[in-house]
Structure formats: structure tokens, C-alpha cells
Amino acid sequence: MSITLSIIYLISTVTFVIGLKMLGHPETAKRGNFIAAVGMVVAIIGTIFLHDFEVPTLNYILIGIALFIGSLIGWLIAMKVEMTKMPELVSLFNGFGGASAMLIGIVEYGNNVGDIAQTSTVIAAIVIGSITFTGSLVAFGKLNGSLKDIRLPKYNLINNILFLGLIAFGAYIVMMGANSTLLIYLLLFASLVYGLLFVFPIGGADMPVVISLLNSLTGIAAAITGVLYGNMVMLVGGILVGSAGLILTFVMCDAMNRSLSNVIFGAFGGDAEVGGAAVGKTGGSVKKTTASDSAVLLNYANKVVIVPGYGLAVAQAQHVIHELEQVLTEKGVDVSYAIHPVAGRMPGHMNVLLAESNVDYDKLIEMDNINPQFPNTDVVLVVGANDVVNPAAHNDPASPIYGMPILDVENAKHIIVNKRSMNAGYAGIQNELFFNTKTAMLFGDAKSALTELVSELKNM
Amino acid sequence: MNELLEFISNNLELIYILILAIFIGVELIKNVPSVLHTPLMSGANALSGVVIVGALLVMLQADPKNYLALGLGFIAVVLGIINVVGGFAVTDRMLQMFKKRK
């Protein structure tokens, strides 16, 4: 490697560190993203032009075409995608990164047979790359609703055996030093299947954890390919993503009071008995309300807290909810939003959504700060959130979400819950909040229900 | 065992870098406000597209007659650059929304 290229890689590595650091602060985030992007462009251009290989023209042409096609696709997707689709998009891009590492591994296997250290990195790249690839695609499918949770009988056992089998198989190939394309394709196939089976049973409420974890794995796959080429920018870049993703994963797990292994190996709602018990406990009558009654309640309140959830994203109701907030504010009502760390399907999902509709930064209040305010709140409006406001987390040790920190909306004076139907949340458990005497249910799609609410309020 | 020790002594620098990078990553992300979790994740996701450097190396070194290597390398470059360009662009779009309210 020429010294110029090494220096370029060094610069890129530094931009990654600085960029990631700046991404963590609201004022500098945009510049941080730009700096990291510049570092990436420099690394790519350097790699193409400053190498010591004899490169046939055909390869150059192909590289140019590949870069052009990929950039165009990436740019178009990024510009066209709706903000409500952000979790899907991150999973999809993430899967592409994993697939890229997987393909590199396949090509490099043939070039590195015999060298134990190199073969192990190649095998690791193939296994981790494939798992992230299919895992991310499943996450993508689940998020856009085309895939349901699938649980094979004894899926935990099957998955764990397959996982151990993969490690043993990989180790075997390394030890044998065999130049067998067949073995590699078998390993590839098994890893791809494991990626599918690994994400299939994980429920929607756990998606923020899974997405962070897959993100972290892609970073690790990139780092491993970096080891393979002795390439520092890939190694450091990949590890940064890997450890950052892992931190986010644990933050998400903490927010749900669950361990990582519990998320991966003990999918929510898999146990029918638990669901049955919870339903029995919450039996009772539900009070329905109408948009005009809710409007009256909101109109005469002093303090209203809105609790957004995934239902808001599904119904694309982020603009209407902002309008509702503005109408109420004009009427002198103090309105704020309570943001649960795992509301939605990815870390920070609600923040992005509400930012898109120009909701003021200061009105988004995090869980620990809003919880003490609920006793002084006149009306809580829950829009498409369920498990994050389920009091069972406090008072039902049998509940699968027992111990998870929640928004204590049941302390407010009145609660209006907007939901499409009485179906249980993604955790598959019934919510006793809906049967509370202070609760009124406003059934309907979030967008149409809120639109009606806004027009009622305007007429008052 | 000897092989392992040999591997460690041959790659000592690499191992140092690996461990230090893990600590940097952890320190960088600790205490990030939840408002920025999504952009941070999609930005980090774009960074993991650095794997494209490996995909480019595959294509640069491939024998033009080795269609398999060229083909797989081609796909790897396409997927990698989608990850990079799409990731940074969408992060920028997201952060743009956060910004305009100031």
C-alpha cells in the first residue's frame, strides 16, 4: 500500500471518529454526518486510484458502473422515503452492508485457503454478513407489515442448535484447511437460514433492540473484512459502528427492563397462557367516547399530555397531531408530548416523526421527566401506544412486561386512548388501562380520529 | 496454543487498535440524548458501508476472466455504495428536520 493511501485512510478514520462524536450532539449532528461522509468519499476515491495493482480497464469500467448505479439507487431511496418508513429503511440499508461483507468473504475464500488466520476471518465475514443480510430483510418485512411473527415449535432449541452448529461448522472448515467450494456454500446457506430464523420469532415491540443489534453486527462484519485486508479504515470504522450499535442495543434493553438474551431467546407473547391470564384479570367494561366529547374534555383542560406510539406512525398522523397541539395551545392549554424510549419501532422513532411535522423540540419530554407531571395533568391523549402505558408493568408480576419502566398515565385525571380496535399490543397482552374508569376509548384510525377531533375543537 | 501465541505476536498492533477502537466507540455514544438515537443509528449504519473499500479491493484485484469474482464484487460494490450514499443522505434529511425549528 502506498504511503499516500495510508495517510488518506488515516484521515478518513479520524473523520469517522469526529463525525460520530458530533452526531451525538444536537447542534453539531448535521456537520458531523457531513464530515464522516466526506471521509468516506475520500477513502473510496483513494482506494480506487492509489493502489499498486495492475488493473485491467474492464475492471475500472465495471467499478464505475457499479458505483454509479448504487449511488443513484441509494440517493433516490433516501430522498423519496417517508419519515414514517425510517425503521424499514435503516434495516434495508443495513442488510445491504451485511450482504456486501458476505460477498467479499465468498470471493476471498478461494484466495486464502491454507492460512488459518485468514481463513477464520473470511469464514467470520461470511457468517456474520449473511446473518445480518437475511436478518435485516426479515426485520424490513416485519416492519412494513408483509411478514408476521413466525414461531416454529421449539424455535429456541432449533435456533440455538443451529447457532452452535454454525460455529462448529466454521471451525471445522478452518481446521481442515480444505479448499472446498461446496463446504463454503453450505456454510453460506446455513448462515442465511440462521439469519431468517433468528429474527422471525422476535416481536414488533422488540424491534428497536433488533435493529440496533443488526446494525452493530454489520459494523463487526466490516471490521472483520478490514482485518482480512489489514485495512485500518475498515477495521476502525467497523468497530466504531459495532460498539456504538451495541451501546444503543443495551440502552433499548434497559428501557424495557429486559436482558439482551431475553429479547433474542425469549420472544414476547410466545406463551399463550400468559396472555390468557392477563385477559382474565382485566375483564370489565370499556367506556367508548366520541370525537366531540373528547374535544370538550380537551378544550376545558389546563394541561394535556400526548403519548404517541407506533399507531401514530402507521396512520401517518404526525401532522394532524401537531395541528391538534397548535389548536389547543391557541386555546391556552399547556400541551406536551411524553416520549417513551422504545415507543415505535426504532430508537428515537417518535422524535423523528414529530420533528418532521415541526413539533417544537422543548415539547418532547422524556419518560423520567414527564412521569412526575402526570398527577397534575388533566387529560392524557394516548395515540397508538399500548405496551408503554400498560400499568401491568407495575402491578402484575405474571405479565411478560412486568418491571418495564412505563409512562404512568393512569395518574392523570382523564385518559383518552385512541386505538383502532381492542386488539392487544405487539407484546400480545391486554392492557388494563383501557378498563380503568378514568379511561375513555376513542376508536378509529389515528389520522381520521385526530382530524375529527381538530375540526370539533375549531368549532368551539 | 503456539499458533495462537504466534498469531497474537504477529498481529499485536492490530489487537491494540481493535481494543482501543471498541473503547472509543463506547465513549462516543454514551449519553447521547434519545432525540438523536435514530439519526445516530442511521449515521452509524452509513459508516458501516465502509465495507465498500473491501468490495473495491476485490474488484481491483480480480482477474477479468474470473467472472465469479467480478460478478460478486460488482454486486458487493453496488450494495455497499447504496448503504453509504443512502445512509448519509437520509441521515442528513432527518437532521435537516431537526434543525429548521431553531
What does this protein structure show overall?
The complex is a heterodimer of chains A (460) and B (102). By secondary structure, chain A is an alpha/beta fold. Chain A is 61% helix and 7% strand. Chain A folds into three domains: 1-80; 85-267, no CATH class; 274-458, TPP-binding domain (Rossmann fold, 3-Layer(aba) Sandwich). A six-stranded parallel beta sheet of chain A has the order 3-2-1-4-5-6. The longest helix of chain A is centred in the first third of the chain and has 28 residues, at 116-143. The termini of chain A are far apart. By secondary structure, chain B is mainly α. Helices cover 79% and strands 0% of the residues of chain B. Chain B has helices at 2-10, 12-29, 37-47, 52-61, 67-99. Chain B is flat. Chains A and B meet through α1, α2, α3, α4 and α8 of A and α1, α2, α3, α4 and α5 of B.
- Number of DSSP E strands of chain A: 6
Shape of chain A: elongated
- CATH class of the largest domain in chain A equals Alpha Beta
Structural domain count of chain B: 2
Biggest β-sheet description of chain A: 6 strands, parallel
Strand content of chain A: 5-15%
The coarse overall form of chain B would be: flat
Give the count of helical stretches of chain A.
18
The helix fraction of chain B, in percent, is: over 70%
Can you summarize this structure?
The complex is a heterodimer of chains A (460) and B (102). Chain A has 460 residues and is α/β, with parallel strands linked by helices.
What are the main properties of this structure?
heterodimer, A: 460 residues, alpha/beta, Rossmann fold, six-stranded parallel β-sheet, 18 helices, B: 102 residues, 2 domains, flat
